[in-house]
Amino acid sequence: MQKLRIALGFSLAFIAVWIGAFAYISFFPENQIPDYTKDDGKVSIVATIYPLAWMASDLDPAATISTIVGPGLEPHDFSPTIDDVKKIQDAELLINNGGVDAWADDIINDHRSGPTISVLTMLQYPETDPHVWLDPVLMQRIVESIGGQLELIDPKNADVIRDNVSKKVAVLQGIDDEYRAGLASCSVPEVVSSHDAFGFLAKRYGFTVYGIAGFSPENEPSSAKLVELTDLIRSHHITTVFFEEFTSDALSKTLASETDAKSDVLDAIESLASEESERLEYPGIMEKNLAKLKTAMVCQE
Ligand SMILES: [Zn+2]
Known about the structure:
Elements: H1 2-27, E1 43-47, H2 50-56, E2 63-67, H3 82-90, E3 93-96, H4 105-111, E4 116-118, H5 119-122, H6 136-153, H7 158-182, E5 190-193, H8 199-205, E6 208-211, H9 223-235, E7 240-243, H10 250-259, E8 262-265, H11 275-296
Parallel strand pairs: 1-2, 1-3, 3-4, 5-6, 5-7, 7-8
Helix pairs in contact: 6-7, 7-11
Bound molecules: zinc ion.
């Protein structure tokens, strides 16, 4: 009898645990189990790529910002780790670009329900050319929408956030002013770059960039394309063939030496490529790129 009572007691306890577990799972369906660690007074922002992390920085004093594609890594062919997946899933605000970070699309669709700013979608651009962060005018709209989301997530800091958004928009406006003035009058408004990363910048400031590879640096150009570019550099008197830190400089250097053009680095700011770029941050790198473009395109101020 004693044994039976103990056995019955165990069975009831076992059933109670299962009922409890089932009720918890039913109440919080998959992916919506609340994360109680978030009540720490901090707002966790995750950006897939560096330039978007910079847009979100210094807006909310309670924010912590992390970037999925770290310094020295190239976002086009990045593979997220399990830890990255968790960060994207759990962020209180996620900012992704579209296209260049297509590896994040499935994670967002399958695992995310929180506030998400998808830059190309928000700006209503297709993903053909993802390099929109190089346009400081379009980025002002992105900073404003990041600020709007942060005000909703962290209303007690709304005034500070609004103030910081104005400051950041002013920085971007300053970059735009410098580019407009610097590239207003150039004798050779054409350059060649190793991959097609500067289309948004070129369209904004009225010059032309011919990419050796396509929108992604892994694309191999055909030999016909190289012959075409060689002819173009010679006939249009293009002075400079740019390459980037992350891409092989072999083709750019060959094209430059074939045509007596110079070769130089232009930073597509896809991530922080060097200690110098970490120090300069987005505005400093944009300024450095402007100086190189002015020389390459023979611009007068
Ligand atoms: Zn790119």
